[in-house]
Amino acid sequence: MLTLNARSALETERAERVDGERVLSILAEPGLTRQPFTAKGVAGSVSLAATGDGRAVIVAAGLPALPDGRVFAVWLMQGDVAVPAGVLPVSNGRAVLALDHDPRRFGEARVTVEDGPHLPQAPLSRPIFSLVLRA
After folding, report:
1. What is the pLDDT of residues 65-86, one digit of tens each?
2. Worst-scoring range by mean pLDDT, 7-11, 99-103, 122-126, 128-132?
3. 120 φ, ψ to 5°?
4. DSSP assignment, residue 16?
5. What is the value of pTM for the model shown?
6. Sheet holding 70-78, edge to edge
7. Angstrom distance (rounded) from CA 66 to CA 80
8. How far is the CA of 72 from the CAs of 3, 4, 27, in angstroms?
9. Of 37, 41, 52, 88, which cross-links 131 as Cys (Cβ 3.0–4.6 Å)?
10. At 74, phi and psi to the nearest 5?
11. Where are the domains of the chain?
């Protein structure tokens, strides 16, 4: 059992390191653009930082603490269809999430509060942050 737990911890650490390196490479890209989300009755700020080739991260600051079992969920919208983009890993009100999808392919990005730790297939609550990605 100890070997299995150690292996799991090592795999988690490697994944976090790879994701951190990915985030840093995107944020260091020359010509990076930043777009702020519009907040809807909640404290904090969320923005999209994107490169010219479609790599992007969501950056958040000042997010309120959520009750246990609740998470900030990121969705990319294609019309009425929501594509789950991940859970914001909040620590001290801050979070950074590298997107696996090119945001240029979507019309809007949204952040909702959902039951976690895993996302539902579609948002079950109203967005608290939103950003129009293309007109």
Report:
1. 999 999 999 999 999 999 999 9
2. 7-11
3. -70, 175
4. H
5. 0.83
6. 38-39, 129-132, 108-115, 70-78, 81-87
7. 27
8. 33, 30, 21
9. 37
10. -105, 135
11. 2-132
